[in-house]
Amino acid sequence: GRIRGFPHERGNWATHVYLPYQAQEEFLELLELLVSHARTHVPSLSAMDEFHLSLSQCVVLRYHWIEPFVRCLRERLASFHRFFCVADQVKVYTNENKTRTFIGLEVSAGHFQLLELVSEVDRVLEEFDLPTFYKDPSFHISLAWCVGDLSGRLEGQCLRELQDIVDRFEDSALLLRLQWEQIRCKSGNKYFSFPLR
């Protein structure tokens, strides 16, 4: 049911820079509670299989730009250290053309370090004449998604109930304190990792 954000064209590679998050068992338990509750409002919700925090929009790179792009990223990100952030605020998002709705956990601490990372990623994107990240980003980890704009059904009462589940979940304060150890760039079917110091 997913719809491409831009048409597929030979030689064009969809590219995305992000922080990968390896979900632990307790996180998946919390996810299951949240998704099963949210499905009472929106039955078509699907839980995400993988988790990450975006540092760029999805952009299009020509194949021959991938290597220089990755090299520039590596140089720009080399000085960054590992850091923590807290993602504990439930929020509803839609993509730009309103074809998909997401439930995510928004970052409440660690915003400054994320903005610093985005600023370096943006500089690389500008060098390649690609769109930079959103002006006032809401950093988050998407947990579940559905087709269409169903934000109206998830906001308000449902959102309050989901936040309540997060706040009451055993050890959620510890669980939702995330340590970032690497940045990743996915271009088509290629993955590149940049370890944080």
* Structural class determined from secondary elements: alpha+beta
CATH topology: Cyclic Phosphodiesterase, Chain: A
Unreliable spans: 1-5
CATH architecture: Alpha-Beta Complex
CA gyration radius, whole angstroms = 17 Å
Overall number of structural domains: 1
Largest sheet: 5 strands, antiparallel
Q: What is the average per-residue confidence, as pLDDT, rounded to a whole number?
A: 94
Give the number of DSSP strands: 10
Number of helices: 6
The CATH C-level class name: Alpha Beta
Distance between the termini: 39 Å
Order of helices and strands: EHEEEHEEHEHHHEEE
Explain the layout of strands and helices.
Blueprint lengths: L11 E10 L3 H14 L7 E2 L3 E4 L4 E4 L3 H12 L5 E12 L5 E10 L1 H17 L12 E8 L3 H4 L2 H12 L3 H4 L1 E4 L1 E6 L2 E6 L2
Antiparallel strand pairs: 1-3, 1-4, 1-9, 2-7, 5-6, 5-8, 6-7, 9-10
Helix pairs in contact: 1-5, 2-3
Overview of this protein structure:
- It is a single chain.
- The protein has 197 residues and is of the alpha+beta class.
- The protein has helices at 25-38, 66-77, 111-127, 151-154, 157-168, 172-175; strands spanning 12-21, 46-47, 51-54, 59-62, 83-94, 100-109, 140-147, 177-180, 182-187, 190-195.
- The protein contains six helices and ten strands.
- The strands form two sheets. Strands 1, 3, 4, 9 and 10 form a five-stranded antiparallel sheet that branches.
- Strand 9 and strand 10 (190-195) form a beta hairpin.
- Helix 1 (25-38) packs antiparallel against helix 5 (157-168) and helix 2 (66-77) runs antiparallel to helix 3 (111-127).
- The longest helix is centred in the middle third of the chain and has 17 residues, at 111-127.
- The model is unreliable at 1-5 (pLDDT under 50).
